[in-house]
Amino acid sequence: MSLRLATLEEVPEIYREFQKLEKRQKHEGKPPIFGYIRKDYLERMAQSKNLYFDNNIIACVKQYKVGRKKYGISGGDWHLAELLNISSNSLSALIFFKKLLKYVIKQSRIFNEIRDDNERSIKWHLSLGFKKIANLKWSNGIIPGGLYTYDNTKNCDEKWFKEIN
């Protein structure tokens, strides 16, 4: 039971989901979290087999080829670039994350940047065991955020995965 990669044919549907979220956030007076997502980016991610569309979860996940000394990232670690749950079911996201760790990340670490105003995402990542390791800023220092990591080399426990077998 592995994760399902998105196809190029699904990219327009995936892109619409990001656009729907952006419109909803603007309507609510919130800054768009994924305002930078473009269709060509999603197409490149699908072509390189880094775009997942599994059980109403959309995720872009890439493996670092080169390390980033400043944050202790090594080649072989993973970057969770985008994560969007298009259903209101948080259990879907938990199951997706467990599968991601078991079948993709395996014995590595995964990193994710999260804006400080995305409180829901921060709370969810911390509840899974992510740790904030650095403060970040985007848009010339205007948008604050953080770099979070999950160390699957320490947390890879078969009991944790038993529900998804």
Summarize the structure.
By secondary structure, the chain is α+β, with helices and mostly antiparallel strands.
Structure description:
- The chain is of the alpha+beta class.
- The protein has a single domain (about 10-165), classed as Aminopeptidase (3-Layer(aba) Sandwich), CATH 3.40.630.30.
- Helix content is about 35%, strand content about 25%.
- The chain has helices at about 10-25, 40-45, 90-105, 120-130, 150-155, 160, and strands spanning about 50-55, 55-65, 80-85, 110-115, 130-140, 145-150.
- The protein has a 6-stranded mixed beta sheet with strand order 1-2-3-4-6-5.
- Helix 1 runs antiparallel to helix 2.
- The longest helix is centred in the N-terminal third of the chain and has 17 residues, at about 10-25.
- The radius of gyration is 16 Å and the shape is globular.
- It starts with 10 loop residues before the first helix and ends with a helix.
- The mean pLDDT is about 90.
What is the level 1 CATH name?
Answer: Alpha Beta
**Average pLDDT value?**
88
What is the H level of CATH, i.e. the homologous superfamily?
Gcn5-related N-acetyltransferase (GNAT)
Q: Spatial order of the strands in the main sheet?
A: 1-2-3-4-6-5
Poorly predicted runs of 5 or more residues: none
Name the quaternary structure. Answer: single chain
Distance between the termini: 7 Å
- Which structural class is indicated by helix and strand composition? alpha+beta
Number of structurally distinct domains: 1
Task: Please bin the fraction of helical residues.
Answer: 25-40%
Q: Might you state the CATH topology name?
A: Aminopeptidase
Question: What is the name of the CATH architecture?
Answer: 3-Layer(aba) Sandwich
The major beta sheet can be summarized as: 6 strands, mixed
